């Protein structure tokens, strides 16, 4: 069974971020990923998308990005993106 969904938000600096998931097979752990957009433009002025896997219990894009830095959403508050 395949299911997917994306919920949007912004995390630090207002860059768009989305949390999504795909259920590949019944009984398997859900694949949950957060989509983030690079803060630095490419040579053609476009911005690259990255997909980072996060634990299935993550509920929001902010929580997902905070988790990738080993923080909780209430503590995660970047002053500068790099």
Can you put this structure into words, describing what you see?
A hairpin with an 8-residue loop joins strand 2 and strand 3 (31-37). The chain is flat. It has a four-stranded antiparallel beta sheet, covered by helices on one side. It has one domain. The N and C termini lie far apart (38 Å). It has one helix and four strands, in the order ββββα. With 82 residues, the protein is mainly beta. The model has no long low-confidence stretch (mean pLDDT 77).
Short description, anyone?
This protein is mainly β. The chain has one helix spanning 61-68; strands at 4-11, 15-22, 31-37, 49-54.
What are the key terms here?
mainly beta, four-stranded antiparallel beta sheet, 1 helix
Write the layout of secondary structure elements.
Layout: E1 4-11, E2 15-22, E3 31-37, E4 49-54, H1 61-68
Antiparallel strand pairs: 1-2, 2-3, 3-4
Strand percent estimate = 35-45%
Q: How many strands?
A: 4
State the order of secondary-structure elements, H for helix, E for strand: EEEEH
Percent helix range: under 10%
Largest sheet: 4 strands, antiparallel
Low-confidence stretches: none
Provide the spatial order of strands within the biggest beta sheet: 1-2-3-4
Structural class: mainly beta
Mean pLDDT: 77
Kindly give the count of domains: 1
Supply the number of helical segments: 1
Rg to the nearest angstrom? 14 Å
Q: Categorize the overall geometry.
A: flat
Task: Give the N-terminus to C-terminus distance in angstroms.
Answer: 38 Å
